[in-house]
Structure formats: structure tokens, C-alpha cells
Amino acid sequence: MTNVGIDAVEIWTGKLKLDLAETFAPEKGDDPAKYTKGLGLFESSFPDTYEDIVTMGANASKRLMERKGLEPEDIGRIDVATESSFDNSKPISTYIAGCLEQTFDGDFHHANKGERKFACVAGTQAVDDAYNWIRAGRNRGRSAIVVATDTALYKRGDPGEATQGAGAVAMLISEDPDLVELSSDQGYGSADETDFLKPNQQFPSVDGKRSVQVYLARMREALVDYESVAGDIHPEDFVYAPFHTPFPGMVRKAALLAYRHITRDTEIEEELAAEIGRQPREEAFDDWDDYVEAVQEYTDALKGTDHYADWYDATIDPTLDIARHVGNWYTGSVHVARAACLKRAYEEGRDLTGERLLVGSYGSGAQAEIHHETLQDSWEEEIAALNIDEQIDARYDLSFEEYEQVHAAHDHSKDRDFEEFTAPDGEFVFDGWGRMGERKYRFVE
Ligand code: HMG
User: Annotated catalytic residue: which of 115, 221, 244, 382?
Assistant: First the structure.
């Protein structure tokens, strides 16, 4: 069977940052610990006035193509996943291809282009589409570029304002990939939910507390569905478990439930029995509410055990290293989580070739997807090439007043223009509107 997966990845963050503890919390009258400890977020990335989903996606894709020595003729497919599109007809992938054609010889006229929508899970769905295209033998030896790009802004005053972010992840999907091979085993948890949506509006309507519950319910369904094809999971099967990360606190909740699920009927449950008892079994209870209460008590106790803390520190915590400093990037978020844990492993000099990741994607509305990935021989070289730390450190630190201006500048309902805070350097920038209402872009040397 053809080995297909992610050959390379590049990450592009918006060039501005909002410090949540130092700048945002005092204005809201909040304890900074609500952000740093509760939500697990320190900073959010924002786009400068000349940046948007196209520039961030095109800049990440340009780095990707240059680093891999690719020309447009090597690419047979460009798919963009976004929930921040400004066009209901013309896909963002056409704008990105147009940008790239300004700087590469040749064109993408024979590449299939599209746009994927299902909230944040669309990034993984676009990777799946590319995987299926290659496995079907329709790629003629060419690779696909998948770009997950979003400007995740909430209405001013919405509780979600604390979890904003902006950035793009570009991935090259190829045969015999250098980074990870994707599994054909997959699990889904999908239901018609009304927790987070954008009915023809720029900023989402959100039922934040409910969205947290829906995330957990769909993720659990996806895990059970994945196990039905891949077999029962044991915590030691995976070196890391990157999950969709709207904010690290969300992943903390999901990780605890996942650990409870995957330790059931294992030697770990037995080892823990003396300390916290065995997991409650539904059949031992006459009353459903009593069962639920017992499960809650067990889960609270499990959280305090060394077994859980050790697994969490090793398998989950490294996946949050980047998210803590950039916020939610919607479609790109789970792909940032993958890069974060591999970056940690690279920095620690770990040998992970052949090891597996358990990857959990999620999109509101709602759908979760779980699959696994196997690290390939050249994963270290791919991860070493990332420059996300330099980008994060170089961001302009906004005052609260400046943040308000930036938010307004990116609000489509407002006609506000502000001076940029940073200077573009060797990148694509937004260059004003065309006569048919299209957005225009140019490359700045
Ligand atoms: P909130 O009401 O402002 O915050 O909104 P809170 O009061 O629930 O506090 C947050 C956490 O901080 C809590 O932790 C507090 O206890 C803790 P928890 O109890 O839940 O573990 N806390 C503190 N900790 C330490 N010291 C303190 C302190 N104060 C409080 N002093 C909410 C939180 C998530 C609802 C909000 O940010 C929101 O609406 N976010 C947007 C929706 C969202 O991100 N949902 C996540 C699941 S849905 C999803 O992932 C999909 C999405 O990416 C979209 C897509 O798919 O397209 C969003």
C-alpha cells in the first residue's frame, strides 16, 4: 500500500501579539491567572493591517515550496481550510495560488483547487482529501499543498475574546513523506449541534460552555469509533496525542477523560485500584445518576494520581507549547499541536522514528476525528526547519488601545484604516481592493 502522509510543514503567525495577563486581564478587571492557569493562555497572535488569511497562507506555502525545492508543476492540488473566508464563491486557494505565481516560475493551472468547510476540523478534512487523491492514484506523482488559515476573532466582549488568534499552517501531502505517515484507521464522532456557528456573519455566535461539553462528547464518540477499527488503545501506544486546542484548558479536560477511557481494563487501572478504587461499571448501578456521580468522583481522584500526571506531562503537555503563545487558530490548531510536540522532542534529542501520534481533530457544529500517524526517518530535519520561535518572539506587543484598533481594522463591518505596526519584509501583503470587490495582493521584497 502506498505510504502517504505529511511531507513537510510550515507555520506562519500573525505579526502582532496581545499579552493576556499583562494587557487584557487588567482592562477586563480579571485575575491574570484566569488566563495563564485557567485557560492556559499567555498571548494571542493577531494579523497586522496588511495581513489576512491569504497573506499568512501564501507566506507559509512559499516557505514550504522553497524549502522543499518545489516548482508549481510539482503541485497537483491546493486546498485551503478556513472559516474566515471573505468570499462565498471564489476559494481562498485561488488567491494563494495567484500570490505564489508572482514569485515562482510557472503556474498552477493544472492543479485542482478548493476550499473545505467544517469549522476547525476542516484542516484535517483537507489533509484527508489530499491523502485520498494520492491513494486513488490520481496525483501523477505530484504532491498537494493543504493550507489551514484563520483569523479567529470574536465579537468584542464575547467570552471567546480571550481565546482569539491568527495564523496559517501549510502542509505538503506526498507519497513517501518525510514527516509522518497517516493511518487509514479513522474514527468519527459527528452530530448536528448548535454550539458555535457563523450564519453569514464574520464573528461567531457562541455558546461557550456548551461548546466545551460538545467537544468532549464528540471526541469520546470518535475515540470509540477509532478503537472499533484500530483496536483498544493503551496509553503507551502513543508518544504524543496532539488534539485540537481552542485553549490549553480544553485539552486538559479532554485528556483526563481520554486517560480514564484508555486505562479501563488495563494493568494501570489495577495498579491504581489500591489508591482510588476501580472504575465504576454501569452494570453495577441501578440508578443512572448514582453511576454518573461515581464516575465523576473517580475522575476527580484520577486527576490527582502520579500515573495520570506523568502521562499528561509526557504525552499532552508538549502539544500545548505553541498554542499557549498564539491562541486558537481554528483550522490550523491541531496541526500547530502536532508541530509543538515534535519540536519539544527534537529539542530534547529524542529518537522517535517509527513511533506513533494519536491525533484528535475537532470542529464545532460538530465533528471530531481521530487517527494515528507514524513518524518517518527524516522527521527531525523537517521539524528543525521550523522558525516559529523566532516569529513568535518578533511579534509587536500591542497596548490595549492598539488591540482595539487592530480588532476594528479587521472587522469587515467597519471602514477603518490604521497604520501598520510592523514592516513587511520578503512577504505577500494585502494591497487594496479591485474593481469587482476582490482583494489584491503583492509581494514586498
Ligand atoms: P469564561 O466564562 O470567560 O471563563 O469562558 P471561565 O469562568 O469558565 O474560566 C475559564 C477557566 O479558568 C475555568 O477553568 C475557571 O475555573 C478558570 P475550569 O473550571 O473550566 O477548568 N479560572 C481560574 N483559574 C485560576 N485562577 C483564576 C481563575 N479564574 C477562572 N483566578 C470559555 C470560557 C471557554 C467558555 C470562553 O473562553 C469561550 O466561549 N471560548 C470560545 C469557545 C471555545 O473555545 N470553546 C471550546 C470548545 S469548542 C471548539 O474547540 C471549537 C472552536 O475552535 C471553533 C471551531 O471549531 O471552529 C472554538
Answer: 244
In angstroms, what is the span from residue 82 Cα to ligand 1's centroid? 22
* Active site annotation includes 120: yes
Question: Which strands make up the sheet holding 143-152, listed edge to edge?
Answer: 112-116, 75-81, 143-152, 165-175, 4-13, 180-190, 367-375, 356-363
35 lines ligand 1 (CB under 6 A): no
Q: pLDDT > 70: what percent of the chain?
A: 100
Contact 54, 441 (CB under 8 A): yes
Is the Cβ atom of 208 under 6 angstroms away from ligand 1? yes
Domains of the chain: 4-439 (3.40.47.10)
Q: Is the pLDDT confidence value at 163 over 80?
A: yes
Average pLDDT, the chain: 97
Q: Is the CB of 156 under 6 A from ligand 1?
A: no
Q: What's phi and psi for 152, nearest 5 deg?
A: -90, 85
User: With contact defined as beta carbons under 8 Å apart, do 238 and 359 qualify?
Assistant: no
pLDDT (mean) for 75-92: 97
Q: Closest ligand 1 atom, CA of 33? A: 26
The percent of residues above 90 in pLDDT, for the chain, comes to 97
Ligand 1 atom closest to the Cα of residue 252 is: 21
* Parallel, antiparallel or unpaired: strands 43-46 and 4-13: unpaired
